[in-house]
Every structure is written in structure tokens, then in C-alpha cells.
Amino acid sequence: MKALHRLGFTAAATAATATLFAAGPAGASEGGDVEISKDREAIAMVGSSTVYPFASYVVEEFGATTQYPTPKIESTGSGGGIKLFCAGDGKDTPDITNASRPMKVSEFERCQANGVDDITRAVIGADGIVIANSVDGHQFDLSLEDLTRAVAAEVPNEDGELVENPNEYWDDIDPSLPHEEIKVYGPPTTSGTRDAFEGMVMEAASEEMDGYDGAYTKIRQDGAYVEAGENDNLIVQKLTRNKEALGVFGYSFLDSNRDRIQAARINGVEPEPEAISAGDYPISRSLFFYVKNSHADEIPAIYEYVEMFLSESMIGDMGYLKEEGLIPLPAEQREEMRKAVLSKEKLTRSQVEEDSQ
Fold first, then answer.
1. 262-305 pLDDT, tens per residue?
2. Which end of the chain is more exposed for a tag (fewer CB within 10 A), N or C?
């Protein structure tokens, strides 16, 4: 592998995407159809908007330092990316899909049914889901229950009965919170961040709250929660314009915009790297990508790219991606992961089930 160069993001790396990807009617940014050329040499990659900045960095580095074409990457959301990845085994399907949550059993079964039965999965690091607002706004300290009462379609009333969510202002939930309209910009249903938010916030809180019969994840649709697409930078822009609004996205977008936004404490814990890595921050998760091994012969660059991504220079304690907001795994886990992935260890159903727990 050639020496690494410190690169900033440029339009050039994404402009060439048009030669490989074309958004279908639904729009790639919403997890819609993406057309991939069968006559290609470059790696085709789709998936998570949270992983997108890290993968884009590696994409640029790979294009600048190897003899291979610069990979083409599209942000479709985790669910949208996995759907495309599992659609079939031809060269008109992605080689790699990035994900901010693990593949579901139903998705794994869809892959198998469509002949995508040799997959390797990589864990690239840790991330925290951040609840943030403008630096000029109120400094929020929220519990998982507060967040659930803000965005759930139904909430328990004083009698423990589920009713349509009546909360319009934050102090309707807790008098110590500000009298500001509840407005939360968050990811759509195609997003792994949305899946993780529903699981780690709403499921966790509702299972402990009287009135819910187990896990509850239905989000209200009356304007209090606004689906802002797969472009997390767009959410940051909305927060700078509306100082009372909150946004939901990955830690890296907070880290690169600290002059404009601030993070809420969740259950009294700030989303700092140490707390996320240790699992002390309540909304912590792992980040993934999945590789279609059957494409490696026709697209020989795939595992060169994978090796670069998993190198210490990228995902290590002093790696470039840490500077971009990735939270590294412990060194021993990184080494074990690297060996498993570069040996093309095949993803099994039991591993998918374990990841999903």
C-alpha cells in the first residue's frame, strides 16, 4: 500500500459519481433506486449517511494513492443501501454497503434468497447518536423518557392509558425544560440512525414506562418530528436557522460543527469519545460495512480498498478517521476484526442474530 496523504474532501470525488450512479424516481438520498453500470471497473458503494464521511475520506485517499479508479459512493441510508446490496449478485449491484446499524435477519435472508450468499462484515469503529441544537439555544439535559415523550405518536396519560401525543412544548414534558416548541429534525425510515434511535431511545424508554405494553417505536407525524432526509449536513443547517429546533445525527457531524451546534446531555452524560467508546453514553453504537465477496474477482480493487480502510492509519488511535470524528475500537478488537475481514470470513446467520441483539 502506498503512503497516505492527508486529503480534504473535494467535489471531484463525488462529481464522477454521476458516471456510475443515477438516482431513480425516489431519489438516492432517500434510499430510492440507484442504477449502477454493469460496464465498470470502479468499486460501487452505497449506504449509511453516517458512515459516508469516513468512507468518502478513504475513497479520495484510495483514488489518489493507488492505480485503481476512484470508487464511487452514494449516500442512500443504511436500509436503502442494504436493500440495493441484497438485490442480486450482478455487477449492476453494489460491491459494498455501509451501515450505521447491523444487518437485520430479514435482510440477510433476502440476500441469501437473491444469491448474495458470500458476505464479509467489518466493524469500523464506534459512534454516538447526538441530539443537538444551535450553540445559541438552550443547553438541553434530556432523559430517554423525555425524548420518547417528545417524538412518540402516543404517550401514557396520568391514568396510564395511551393517548395521542399532546406535548407541544418541552415544558409540557418536564417543567424544568424550556417553553419552546418541540421540533426535532431527524433521519427517515431508510436510515440506520433512525433504526438505532428507535431501538436505543424509544424501545429502551417505553419498556420501562407504565402504559406501554413492551417496546414502542411509532414516531408522531404531526410536524413535531420532521424527516430531514439522508443529508445530515442539511440538519445542521436547519439548526443554525431555527435556534429552538433539535437534530438527530451521528457524532462526527457534531465534532465537525462545534462552532455552530451543541449536544444535549442524555441521562446526564455528554457524547464524548471516551463515554461513547465505553458505552456509558446511552445512545452508542457500532458502524459497519458489508462486502460482496463474489465481486472481488471482477473488481480487484475491492480488498485493496478494504485493507486501506481497516489500516491503523485510518481507524487506529492516531488514524485520520479519528480526526474526522470516528471513535476507534480498542486495539485488540481492531486487530481481530482486520484479520477476520481480510481473510474474507463469511457472514453467518448466527452472527447476524448476535449483532441484532
1. 999 999 999 999 999 888 999 999 999 999 999 999 999 999 99
2. C
